[in-house]
Amino acid sequence: MVSGLFDRILKIFFIFLSIVIIIGFVFLAIRNYIMPEVTATKPLENSTLIKKDYFTGRVISRETIEVKADRKLYIEEINVKSSQIVEPGSKIITLDMSRQSLNTDTEAVELQNQIKLYEIEKLNLKSQMNNREASVQRALESYNKAKEEYESTSYLYENGIVTKEDLDSKNDSAEELRKSYEREVSSLKSETEIYAMNLNRIDSEINILLGKLHGKVNEENKITVDSEGVYFLSDMVYIDYIIDKKIVEEGETVIRYSICNSNSDLYIEAYLDRDVYDDIFNKRYSVYFWKNDERKKESLNIQSVRSFPDHNELIFSLRDELREKVYISDVVRFMVQSEENYECVVQKTAVVPVGEMKSGNYCYIYTIESEESILGQINYLKQGEYKILAVGDNTVAVEASQTNTTRIDRNSIIANYASAVLENEMRVRIIK
Amino acid sequence: MKKYSMMKYILPSIFGVAFLNLVPFIIAQKYVFFSSGGSFTDIFSNMGFIISIKNTAVFMSVFIPLAVIIGFVTAFLTEYLKLSFWVQAAVILPITVPASSVSGFFREIAASSALENINGLFIVGFIFLWSCIGYTYIIFLISLKNRDKSIEEAAYLDGSGTLRTIFSIMLPLHSEALVLAVIVSTYNSLKIFRMTYAIFGEYPDYRMFMIQNFLHLKLKELSLDTLMAGADILLAFIFILLFFILRSGRKHKIKMSL
Amino acid sequence: MKKFTVKLLSAFIIIVFIFPILYTISHSFMDGYQLKNNEVEIVPEIFNIQQYYEISVEKNEYFKLYINSAIMTAGVLLGQMIVSIGAAYYFSVKKSRYSEVLFLIYTFFMLLPLQITLIPNVLLYNSIERYLGLRLFNTQFAVILPGVFSTLGVFFLKQFFESMPQSYYEIAKIDGASDLEILLHVVLPYSKNAIAALCLLIFIENWNLIEQPIIFLSSMSKMPVSIYLNTLYSSYREIFYAGSVLFMFPVIYVFMKIRDKLKVMVLKISDEGR
């Protein structure tokens, strides 16, 4: 029993060891034979580089206007898209009127209440007016009645039935009534005038409130709104930004646009790194630009510079004939070209850039070192970080970016067709 | 030509042995006998050589008999007490184990503070015993299994005690095995260099510096005069040893392996 | 009582002899943290096979050297078989004064320490390189060559061939067999076990080569594992023990497989001797 168990343990242990050995051999074969292949080159002898830097810019207009909502808005339809150029008078936004007025918005309710108050006031005034007219009418009737009574009394006097005093008193009361009637009439006249004025006033107040309820009227920004809740602009504009949701809170930007009635409003804006900016501005290299596919290059003049911590914006002015060719928001490309000597120039295919292949960015270059080890002679890669100084057509000028990066000199062997798959200390096989 | 037809079997071996060992050795003697200074005097004045000879002599005279004795005792116990198969396997196993594998264990033992006071030579001796008793054990085991029990029983019946039986009867009977064991142990004692190298490196402590270490260092330097002188001395020594062993073997009767 | 002391004695002997091996095996299952501890510890705290994983997957240069060891051992084994069998056959059959003297010389060479035989080897290689232009140093052939002609095999096999009963030989001769046929069909089958034992001995001997590689090889990529383990102890102790166990493994395995055949051979020798 014991020996049987021991034998089994021993057997398991031996199988385990055999498995380890087999795994070891397998991984050895893998390490030895499965290696990436690279071609080896050396840095270039000729160290002049025609340095070309490319960057992009946009056509912009002189002025950009931003409009914010002054209250909560309910939008039914957004009629434009951003980056669109709209003709004057086009619809921008249509408001949802049903929700806009029947809302539970307190301000709207208040406005409506105010309107109601005004309506009530109007009614009050009207009833006052009616009262006044009624009293005038009553005065007239009273006077007419007194007058009839005087006439019937004067008939009686002439027949010797009533005394002269009775006739005179009847005459006096008729006279009084006539005066009060005339007074009533005149006060009615003035009251009617006042009434008309009040009515005007109230009506205009109501109109204003209605206007507030239905939309904003903003004179400076040239946005007009009509009674159906449609906004439109009276200029030709380029929509930089338009809100994309249906409910806008107070204070949110609704729309941002640039006016581009004519090409004289247009400029070209470009973002440049410091080095390139120095080259253009200080060394006065020529700048060429072209639009997308057009091959022809035009030269530009610098109009103004805006400096930011990490980049500069150059505003180039467009010559008149150029202005005809561009539209606002066009993307254009620039190139700055120069020829310079660099200490270390390698083939472009040996450089793996971090980000874009342009000067100022960092890149990796893999040098090949060989070493004698237990597995024989092995070649392995050494990764170095370099800063791209200049980019040519097929070549790149670099310099070591950190103090511990190996310098590339005439005798270094560099891995060509380097790709992102290569890593530091990776074993490689060299093919010619 | 029948006499020479057998020659072809030994030809490659002779060729190899001669060319690889004999001829160069003889040629190399010129370094010893025709060198500028008398290299024999040189070598005897070399302190390292003296120490290594002393160490080797002590080592061999102490531990070879020990290996033989312990091997015999263990074989005896195994045979008489019918010790299990596991014991046999355990004793024999160390001879198969490579020196490098167990060097870890011995290194740690040697480095641990418990053994600082013990002479380095004894540590090496212990390691030698551990790795080589297997050989003597096997030899004696075979011999013991072979023996003719009748003589022993006769001795017992005659009334001699166990110890006397062993010494006066058994040992002479096994003298052939004894000789073989001594030869094998001598052979292995010269192989102790492997263990020493694996455990202590090329420059061991002076107390365990033996002649192979000396020769090895000289070989690396390729200083051939002292090297050949030392080799010659060692050679002579072994020659004498072999001579004595064989003669005593012949003296103790029974046909020799030769 | 006697049984108990016997068992105790057996246990004692077993432990003393197996202890270093057990120590190595148990250390191979320790992880790096425990190994840095310089005290002598026996049982691993946590049983893990991290060492084996590291050695097989990450640091598998070891296996390249394993192949080196295997190549050298196999080369010597093959060569010795061819050379020693022939020579032993000669010595066992031919009984003349010359052969006795020759055999004495052979025994003498067998006992020489390696350093002494290495010297003529080195000198020989030097002159070969100089006069024939063949590069021998730093090749594995340089290590295999002396091993092939080691006289231990001849010594060992001659003893065994001689123990074969003369009758076999004479019967075969009467049947008209030539020397070669006798060798192949009579002597070899008879001494299968002895040859197996010799193979084991040669295997053990050459698996464990240390002196020759140091002298003949200079680049690490050609070294056998026996040398590499020494450097491994100081540089990468984490995998040293796993490497040791893997290195011991073939020898012990072969030994265990052959042990039955060895037993038979031992009995046969004892039978013949009787």
Automatic annotation (TrEMBL), chain B:
Residues 53-246 form the ABC transmembrane type-1 domain. The chain crosses the membrane at residues 57-78, 85-106, 118-144, 165-187, 227-246. It comes from the Bacteria. GO terms for biological process: transmembrane transport. It is found in: Cell membrane. PANTHER family: ABC TRANSPORTER PERMEASE PROTEIN (PTHR30193), INNER MEMBRANE ABC TRANSPORTER PERMEASE PROTEIN YCJO (PTHR30193:SF37). This is Sugar ABC transporter permease.
UniProtKB/TrEMBL annotation, chain C:
PROSITE patterns: ABC_TM1 (PS50928). Its main location: membrane. It is a multi-pass membrane protein. GO terms for biological process: transmembrane transport. Keywords: Cell membrane, Membrane, Transmembrane, Transmembrane helix, Transport. The chain crosses the membrane at residues 6-26, 65-91, 103-124, 136-157, 182-203, 239-256. One of its GO terms (cellular component) is plasma membrane. Pfam families: BPD_transp_1. CDD domains: TM_PBP2 (cd06261). It is found in: Cell membrane. Residues 66-258 form the ABC transmembrane type-1 domain. Belongs to the binding-protein-dependent transport system permease family. This is Carbohydrate ABC transporter permease. It comes from Sedimentibacter hydroxybenzoicus DSM 7310. The lineage of its organism: Bacteria, Bacillati, Bacillota, Tissierellia, Sedimentibacter.
